[in-house]
Amino acid sequence: MNLPALLAKKTIAKEEDINLLKSSFTFFNVLFFGIPVIIALFGKESTSVLICVYLGTAMYGNVIGYFQVAKTKLSTKKALKEMIKVPYLYVFIIAIGIKVLGVKIPEEVDPAMDIGSWVISCLGMMIVGVHLTDVNFKNINIPYFGKLLGFRTISAILISVLIIGAEYLIWGNLETEDYLMLILIPFLPVASNISLFASYLETDEERFSLVVVLSIGLSLVLVPIVAQFFPS
After folding, report:
1. pTM of the predicted model, to two decimals?
2. If 0-12 CB within 10 Å is exposed, 13-18 middle and 19+ buried, where does residue 177 land?
């Protein structure tokens, strides 16, 4: 998705910061938007593949994505220093270690972890809302953002078709439900993490938050439409 971002920079988004575009194009809200949708459509037991997708997107978004956002304000060297401070990187390493060592998480912890995840999501969206208080919605260039998010969505669809098609034709290891889950990913909104990163770095907070919110609105329209074509 960095390639469509570069193309957008040369065509419809010439005034945007390229790092902002890359982050907006590459980071999809799989965890707090995608997984609840999948649970509603297929049940909680069917989310294994999407969780794997989330781990990959989160690793990229929280590390490389954060680096891209940091570069809108900092030099490459300083941005790298900021990147290695990202907690997700170390949480991921610890989680892999727990998995390899076969450590079992007590079932009593599950409710607290579920509640904690939703609290974190709500706090993240609250920060987006705080940034939006400084946005004059009357002056928003809706046609421009529509083109930008439309281009992002179409690009994601084309790339997903290539990847899903290759998996189906070459390996074919996934179940039908797994393919349907992957089909939904291009229609997911921009993850709110980029707004949090922008807030921490104090760079283009309003712009980032606006992109997140508008993409959520677009997803709330597109995801139900796409889901209507799924077999019951």
Report:
1. 0.84
2. middle
